[in-house]
Amino acid sequence: MPLIALTGGIASGKSTIARRLAEHGAVVVDADGIVREVQSAGSPVLRQIAAAFGDGMLRPDGELDRAALGAVVFGDTAALARLNGIVHPAVKLESHRRFTAAFDADPGAVVVYDVPLLAEARAGDQWDLVVVAHAPADVRVERLVRLRGMTEGEARARIASQADDDVRLALADVVIDTSGSLAETVAQTDVLWEQLARR
């Protein structure tokens, strides 16, 4: 019953790996999905965000205004730390609930936590395996420009706002090189799955 942390910087191909592992039968728990859930309208987390950063963080429908919040915390380490202090504990609690539910349903399950901010927020947790999706920054910049319509400057700023690649790679038990073709990434993921199946 391995619990695997899957991480990688923005545009590193992490989602491709998660999808492939799910196709093989892994239970994928999506950290970003949990973040959106715990910040939904009326939630205790959203009330704390509004209390900390002002009601301007809320849209008229009561949902979080992600753009407004992003503008406040981006590049402001103190504001980001305050936000993380509100959000991360709730995400940790909910992710553990989902891990437990998955293993209760199938003690032999392979559970994959798809978590962009492992190095920043969950590096000290107990994982059976840490898998890092890795592509050089220039490759990721090109993907962000081509696939997400960012300018090169915006793409580099987003990458710079995340953990350094060396910090992420230092956590890795397995590195999947995603700088090549989609087929090459999928093939490496298939090899990982075979290794997990043999454990």
Major beta sheet, specifics?
5 strands, parallel
| Unreliable parts | none
CATH architecture of the largest domain: 3-Layer(aba) Sandwich
What class would the helix/strand composition place it in? alpha/beta
Pathway: Cofactor biosynthesis; coenzyme A biosynthesis; CoA from (R)-pantothenate: step 5/5
Main location: cytoplasm
InterPro entries: Depp_CoAkinase, P-loop_NTPase
Pfam families: CoaE (PF01121)
Fold and architecture overview:
This protein has 199 residues and is an alpha/beta fold. The chain has two domains: 1-26 and 110-199, 3-Layer(aba) Sandwich (Rossmann fold), CATH 3.40.50.300; 32-106, Rossmann fold, CATH 3.40.50.300. Helix content is 58%, strand content 12%. The protein is built from ten helices and five strands, in the order E-H-E-H-H-H-H-E-H-E-H-H-H-E-H. It has helices at 14-24, 31-38, 44-53, 66-73, 77-105, 118-122, 137-148, 152-160, 165-170, 182-198, and strands at 3-8, 27-30, 111-114, 129-134, 174-177. A five-stranded parallel β-sheet has the order 2-3-1-4-5, sandwiched between helices. Helix 2 (31-38) packs across helix 5 (77-105). The termini are close together. The mean pLDDT is 93.
